Amino acid sequence: xxxxxxxxxxxxxxxxxxxxxxxxxxxxxxxxxxxxxxxxxxxxxxxxxxxxxxxxxxxxxxxxxxxxxxxxxxxxxxxxxxxxxxxxxxxxxxxxxxxxxxxxxxxxxxxxxxxxxxxxxxxxxxxxxxxxxxxxxxxxxxxxxxxxxxxxxxxxxxxxxxxxxxxxxxxxxxxxxxxxxxxxxxxxxxxxxxxxxxxxxxxxxxxxxxxxxxxxxxxxxxxxxxxxxxxxxxxxxxxxxxxxxxxxxxxxxxxxxxxxxxxxxxxxxxxxxxxxxxxxxxxxxxxxxxxxxxxxxxxxxxxxxxxxxxxxxxxxxxxxxxx
Length: 323
Ligand code: HEM
Known about the structure:
The chain is an alpha+beta fold. It contains 13 helices and 9 strands. The radius of gyration is 22 Å and the shape is globular. The chain binds protoporphyrin IX containing FE (HEM). It comes from Capsicum annuum (Capsicum pepper).
């Protein structure tokens, strides 16, 4: 925020594409919290994963021919090269961390400790876990924050309510305390309503291990299917006629059915980073609404698009005014 202010010192109002900025921010947060390193050190890994995502999206949008992925086509070779390079970058990060990790309790140190135990993780498994965290921790959280800021820029009344709540509890402290985070009822309702309308992961893939009956549907074993998070989150039978509208108030009451809202999935494969994501989102939102009023830029084009996570296709330009 200080950098934004510095860059636009002279101006009463300035525009920022928050999508890009928040992507860098959550990359920094996951690098520090999970790996004890900076965004700069993880940058290469994020970059390689970005390229891998683009190739994966291309493959997902092409006709699937069994076995095709093993042929030495340009894209297949590139995918293999990216995978190899990513693993090497993660391996280097692990080696560096192994040397200087006294008193460190981040995820990477814990994984390394687990790998040193008898019958513990192997190095390849540690690398797999690190890759998952790098990928899972960045675009999901930045997506949540981006959509939340866009919605607040559009719904001034909720922006005012959030600001009032933050100012009441933070009492001039720019950075909210851990206790403040529990007090933020309105902010939490806003974040939940954002996750309902724009879930960063719009669908889950699941497989049946045995024959099952789902309502009237008989599903045989070994069937793979999609569970559409977005369809359930937008269902008028569950959420009422205003299901497509932004109304955080609906989260003031507890829900009748747990499975009507599952942006972080449910059950044994539930998101392990959900608390970190919510803490990060509450802190960032609180700091922004305390310092700025937000309005949607006229250049914003509403085009939610799927790039593995739900993203604004043409960015998220927001007008900021210092308060
Ligand atoms: C708003 C932010 C986030 C959302 C909406 C989100 C959503 C999800 C969802 C829906 C899944 C289940 C995927 C599936 O089973 O197919 C998942 C899994 C996972 N998430 Fe998140 N996530 C978020 C943030 C994070 C963060 C910050 C981290 C890392 C600290 C993280 C780490 C993971 C991991 C490691 C898994 C895999 C768990 C497993 O397979 O057992 N997520 N997430």
